[in-house]
């Protein structure tokens, strides 16, 4: 299994990345995409990736963080992205859940496009964070084509919208929310999209799958997501491993 979205660069784990990686590998995780959310966490993601064979990095400024950064930070992201262990720009996108102010939302759009341009310039895929505002996200992706596509991390959109993102070269990422008792949409989507369209993720330390919901998440719990997806798609866990791993390797050219 590949954890296509986790934060070993989070305060909770960055002091002991070796321990984290070993524990997760013992639980069947073969590789990790450690995702940055601001300049500092992107730098740490690159550092961890350089020191660990199975860890790759994504660098970028999260939509909820863009208002806190300066122009200079985007230049630094571009420099960091040239490191050979950096395989994506992310997580970037829109977060309308936390930001209701139209000016802030417009700035999120502007900086999302700006970071798509960095990805295209360096020929990298992107990792998208989109909480609410999926229509705006889709419109941006249609008007600013991402050459290498990427991942819609923690896909929370409708079944009807899923093919639109897939058509644009995006894989849909599924994690802990597929295991939550009250979640409907992610279950409905993962049950019916093509086998070539999905990847697994934890988003650790967030969104811990059942039955551990409430504690900090960890890549070692990825098997819980994998097993739930197998149940929902009515295939074996081994088949989920195989399909999701192939999908990631294809889009990220590994
Ligand atoms: Zn994340």
What would you note in describing this structure?
- There is one protein chain.
- It is built from 9 helices and 8 strands.
- With 254 residues, the chain is an alpha/beta fold.
- It has one domain: TIM Barrel, CATH 3.20.20.140.
- Helix 2 packs parallel to helix 3.
- The longest helix has 21 residues, at 102-122.
- It is globular, with a radius of gyration of 17 Å.
- Zinc ion (ZN) is lined by residues 5, 7, 35, 91, 203.
What labels describe this entry?
254 residues, alpha/beta, TIM Barrel, eight-stranded parallel β-sheet, 9 helices, 8 strands
Chain-wise SSE layout:
Elements: E1 2-6, H1 17-26, E2 31-35, H2 39-51, E3 55-59, H3 71-80, E4 86-95, H4 102-122, E5 126-131, H5 134-143, E6 150-153, H6 162-167, E7 170-174, H7 185-192, E8 198-200, H8 222-233, H9 237-252
The structure holds zinc ion.
| Strand line-up in the sheet with most strands | 1-2-3-4-5-6-7-8
Helix content: 40-55%
CATH superfamily: Metal-dependent hydrolases
Our measurement of the CA-to-CA distance between the termini, rounded to an integer number of angstroms, reads 14 Å
Number of domains: 1
Outline of the structure:
The protein has nine helices and eight strands. With 254 residues, it is an alpha/beta fold.
């Amino acid at each position: 299994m590949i954890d296509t979205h986790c934060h070993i660069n989070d305060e909770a784990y960055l002091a002991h990345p070796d321990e984290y990686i070993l524990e997760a590998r013992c639980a069947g995780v073969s590789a990790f995409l450690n995702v940055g959310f601001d300049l500092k966490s992107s730098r740490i993601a690159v550092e961890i990736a350089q020191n660990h064979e199975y860890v790759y990095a994504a660098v970028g400024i999260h939509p909820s963080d863009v208002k806190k950064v300066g122009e200079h930070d985007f230049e630094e992201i571009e420099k960091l992205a040239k490191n050979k262990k950096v395989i994506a720009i992310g997580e970037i996108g829109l977060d309308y859940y936390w930001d209701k102010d139209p000016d802030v939302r417009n700035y999120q759009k502007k900086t999302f496009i700006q970071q798509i341009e960095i990805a295209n310039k360096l020929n990298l895929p992107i990792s998208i964070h989109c909480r609410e505002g999926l229509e705006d996200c889709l419109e941006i992706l249609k008007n600013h084509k991402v050459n290498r596509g990427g991942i819609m991390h923690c896909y929370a959109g409708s079944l009807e919208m899923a093919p639109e993102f897939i058509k644009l070269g995006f894989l849909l990422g599924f994690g802990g929310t597929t295991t939550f008792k009250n979640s409907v949409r992610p279950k409905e989507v993962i049950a019916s999209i093509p086998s070539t369209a999905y990847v697994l993720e934890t988003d650790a330390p967030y969104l811990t799958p059942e039955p551990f919901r409430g504690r900090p998440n960890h890549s070692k719990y990825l098997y819980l997501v994998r097993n739930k997806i197998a149940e929902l798609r009515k295939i074996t866990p081994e088949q989920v491993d195989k399909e999701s791993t192939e999908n990631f390797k294809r889009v990220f050219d590994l």
